[in-house]
Amino acid sequence: MNQFSYVRPASQQAAIDAITRDSSARFIAGGTNLLDLMKNGVLAPEKLVDINRLPLKNITLNNNILHIGALTLNSEVAAHPLVKTHHPLLSQVLLAGASQQLRNMATTGGNMMQRTRCSYFYDITMPCNKRTPGSGCSAIGGINRMHAIFGASDQCIAVHPSDMCIALVALDATVLVAGPKGNRRIPFGEFHRLPGNTPDKDNNLGKGELITGIEIPHSPFTQNVYYLKVRDRASYAFALVSVAAALDISNNTIRGARLAMGGVAHKPWRLHEAEKTLIGKSPTADNFRIAATVATQSARTYQHNAFKVPMAQNSIVTALQKAAAV
Amino acid sequence: MKKQTVGQSMDRVDGRLKVTGGARYFADHQPEGMLYAALVCSPVSSGRITAIDATKALRAPGVADVVSHLNAPPVPGYKVENPNPKQGLKIFHDDRIYSNGQPVAIVVANTLERAVYAASLVKVTYAQEVHQTDMAHSMDQAFQNKNMKDYLRGEADAWKKAPVSVEAEYNIPIEVHNPMELAGIIAHWETPDKLTLYAKTQGVKSVQQSLKTLFQLPESQITVHSQFVGGAFGMALRIWPMEIATILAAKKIRKPVKLVITRKDMFTLVGYRPAAKQRIGIGATAEGKLTGITHEAVANTSPYEDFTEAIVNMSRMMYACPNVNTHYQLVPLNLSTPVWMRGPGEATGAFALESAIDELAHKLHMDPLQLRLVNHADIDPERNLPYSSKYLKEAYEMGAAKIGWQQRSQTPGKLEENGWLVGYGMSSGVFGAGRGRATASATLKADGSLVVRSAAADIGPGTATAMVQIAADATGIDVKKIKFLLGESEYPEAPRQGGSSTVSTVGSAVNDVCRNLQQKLGELATANIPAFKDLKAENIQHEDGQLVAGNTRLDYAALLQQQQLPELVVTTTSQAGDERKQYAMYSFSVHFAKVQVHPATGVVRIKHIVSVADSGTVVNSKTARSQMIGGVVGGIGMALTEEALIDHRFGRYVNNNYADYHVPVNADTPPTDVLFINKKDPVINPMGAKGMGEIALIGFAAAVSNAVFNATGKRVRDLPITPDKLI
Ligand SMILES: Cc1cc2nc3c(=O)[nH]c(=O)nc-3n(C[C@H](O)[C@H](O)[C@H](O)COP(=O)(O)OP(=O)(O)OC[C@H]3O[C@@H](n4cnc5c(N)ncnc54)[C@H](O)[C@@H]3O)c2cc1C
Ligand code: SF4
């Protein structure tokens, strides 16, 4: 770890200024990802800008829009009555992530910004395009059991590891950002990126920009929701694949459907086409199976992760069945 | 008379210290002037160091020195005249790199942070050579050394002629012990030829012996302290190169130096369970009588040491089978040397044998429990000896009743609960019940308290507690007045804590020294106390810490006080006799598992576990239960989650942390019933206690994989059974 300076600004503007001035500076929130990256030598910021004093820790409902401040802890969001009532899916995905200890530190903003868990990214002795652009992708031709089946490039096949983001993309959340050029709103589905030729860029947040919070619009998905996370151990493991399913069912007909997957792509993977196949249909296993087939049409696999395609299909069906049964 | 304490569920004597932070582990010590070390490890898996540039590191704040093969003090015990590579890794001796992660330098500074930072500044250049870490690609390198004799009973490969037979290959990956406490050492040269160490070890005496040879010092000049160990599972059974590196740094710098390695380095510096590829051929008559077993194994070792263990041995002696042959080979890979990991080789072998038995039972349309009963060995088939004790049949029966074995369907895939497939599986385990040689001293104080000492270790099973109980029963002194002290090299000699033999070996010494103490007290009484004058010391009754002669009762404490003796010290060495040649001594375990498998996602959940131990007298039912549960958790890891992954292109581990290397968590651990036969072994030792640490794990993984087969009809022969293998 390098020597670095540490500042703890009291205002949002000061925080943004502090970052903008210094090209290697980073915000630090819970620190649960950033510190590991620093200890492993993946990142060596010369300045840490601690944002924990900023007034971004809140959960409010206004005009049926739920606002969650960027510093609200994962554990607070998971347990909050407004979240459990209006967006139970969000509570479920959070509880499926990490461990209670980590959730007690991890923030909403930090969770969105967490880096991939690709082992090669964390070990500076092995090539990785995401860490060192142009050095090569060790996962291709290496150990890639955990890696992407959708939207990867020949530069990077990493997956985004967050559970929280799977619900947020399914619920059409909006990311609220403040930056040197003022505030802006980014639809959640456009926040994270596919690797393409710039795998070093995980998302579309600009230099100096601070996530201040997220908004989730009113949704009918308060009942029939389910998050299925398939993993190598029962808790405290990242997803092999995960599925967030939300259904709006009346008179045995699906009026609305949301499907998103984790563990399969460089960004939270929304399954719009599969959702469409469900609208107007009855919630049957056969219809769910059709959605699952559509969902995985564009899959492309590598040496160790071909199992993810049938696992993804089965998980979609299972998650939809569970959601429908609630 | 006082109630017997052996067999009771007594709280750990050091439990309070452990949960209040009062227990001092090696890293908690802080000799005056101590410095901190960090390792520089090779990212290259084979080759030579061509240069080490430590200029920047030496200029970094607080750095005392950077020690490597270029400047380390010599180790007089390294055999250098004969450069046979098979002599263990001679750390800092030359420029050779044998494996990724091998330490090439140690940086010492006045804070840990500074040492770690400076270590990142050391620039090492290498001449890289071709490495191989993939066993599958090195099978042509397989060899046997002279300790690895083939075994043959009856006819070789007789299974091939059997009416019903199974042949299958089983693979286990490298597993890493990963105890919670990180490895390391504090080395302090108090004078140029007097070394004091605070170590994490399973044997202070064995550390002392290794260093005696390496540094050519008399035993009296080496002191090793290791009173508390935060788990080891075998990884602290020997001294490791990084510990020598720290000792060398401390010697050069002339200050105490502490090294605590990182979690990542726990994969490369302190051993692991080697990867093994096993093939079993097993045949039986149509009635299920075994006619032949062939068990072949290949496991990996390092380029510089042959690590062997008892992988194929269970096949020789578990079942009554006239024809058995075994064959065991090693493959050297560019990895560090493996070391025993709980259950050691027997656990590896049991996975193969106990899976094959299940496969055979399936082919025979026979209940696997029945198949095991049909082939039960009434005498040890390998050595033709009677067992000192064996209650395996009872163990099968108890376990089957507890898990509800009768609910099992002989046809796989027939049971379901809430959309999950349900299966039942079982296995057995066996491990030699050892007894070595140990010495203990007993110091009776004039206040009536007793201190027993032996250089044993306690890596978690509750050794001191068990020893206090044994001493309490032997002397009649109340447990509260007894202390058992361990983990100091100056104490009387005891072997390493390994191979499930501490209670048997050290417990016997404790028992015997207490008996000798009573004899001494008797002699004191007959010589000096009128009421005892006419008795012989050996005829005096002892009860509740008192000598008894007719109506006269004399407290031990009172006797010492009357004789104006501040204390009475007795030392006794105890070891097994000829009985070990007359009897086969084994502990047995039986594991039953009920699993659920999710057919859509391949997720396995263990719903219920029953483990039964035939381990003789249970000294402490509470710590024994914990010991068995620990074995079960290790077994769940072996069966379902643990696998150290290497990218063979780099020869480097890619999941070397607790997040990616999956040790089971609470949520993986189902309700576990631990049952004990708890019948005294009449031969093995005065307590009648056989070992338990290893059998807790041996066989367990097979019970789970057999249950998974019963649930799904899918046989997974490559551990761990992760969801992808069932989808
Ligand atoms: C062992 C382990 C297991 C885990 N398992 C899971 C799991 O199963 N599922 C899961 O979803 N996650 C898991 N996590 C990841 C965890 O959720 C993230 O580490 C956490 O959410 C990050 O939040 P933080 O506040 O600690 O971020 P920090 O570490 O403080 O920051 C992470 C990054 O975000 C940036 N950042 C933080 N806040 C802002 C902001 N407001 N605006 C702009 N940038 C910001 C920082 O600069 C930094 O680059 C696991 C982590 C660990 C260590
Ligand atoms: S998948 Fe991406 S993160 Fe992983 S090694 Fe390749 S480039 Fe790096």
TrEMBL record, chain A:
Keywords recorded for this protein, A-Z: FAD, Flavoprotein
Does the keyword Hydrolase belong to this entry? Answer: no
What residue stretch is flagged as signal peptide? none
Q: Does the keyword Lyase apply?
A: no
- Bilayer-crossing regions: none
What SUPFAM superfamilies would the database entry show? CO dehydrogenase flavoprotein C-terminal domain-like, FAD-binding/transporter-associated domain-like
Which Pfam families does the entry mention?
A: CO_deh_flav_C, FAD_binding_5
> What Gene3D superfamilies does the record tag this protein with?
3.30.465.10, CO dehydrogenase flavoprotein, C-terminal domain, Uridine Diphospho-n-acetylenolpyruvylglucosamine Reductase, domain 2
Q: Which domain of life is it from?
A: Bacteria
A molecular function annotated in GO for this UniProt entry is: oxidoreductase activity
Sequence ranges assigned to domain FAD-binding PCMH-type in this UniProt record: 1-221
Protein name from the UniProt record: Xanthine dehydrogenase family protein subunit M
Q: Which organism is it from?
A: Chitinophaga fulva
Q: What is the lineage of its organism?
A: Bacteria, Pseudomonadati, Bacteroidota, Chitinophagia, Chitinophagales
Automatic annotation (TrEMBL), chain B:
> InterPro entries per the record?
Ald_Oxase/Xan_DH_a/b, Ald_Oxase/Xan_DH_a/b_sf, Ald_Oxase/xanthine_DH-like, AldOxase/xan_DH_MoCoBD1, AldOxase/xan_DH_MoCoBD2, AldOxase/xan_DH_Mopterin-bd_sf
UniProt keyword Oxidoreductase present: yes
Protein keywords: Molybdenum, Oxidoreductase
Transmembrane domains' residue ranges: none
The residue ranges of the Aldehyde oxidase/xanthine dehydrogenase a/b hammerhead domain are 20-130
GO MF terms on file?
iron ion binding; oxidoreductase activity
Gene3D superfamilies noted in UniProt? Aldehyde oxidase/xanthine dehydrogenase, a/b hammerhead, Aldehyde oxidase/xanthine dehydrogenase, molybdopterin binding domain
- A Pfam family per the record: Ald_Xan_dh_C
PANTHER family registered for this protein in UniProt: ALDEHYDE OXIDASE 1-RELATED, XANTHINE DEHYDROGENASE
The protein's name is Xanthine dehydrogenase family protein molybdopterin-binding subunit
Instruction: State the organism of origin.
Output: Chitinophaga fulva
Q: What is the lineage of its organism?
A: Bacteria, Pseudomonadati, Bacteroidota, Chitinophagia, Chitinophagales
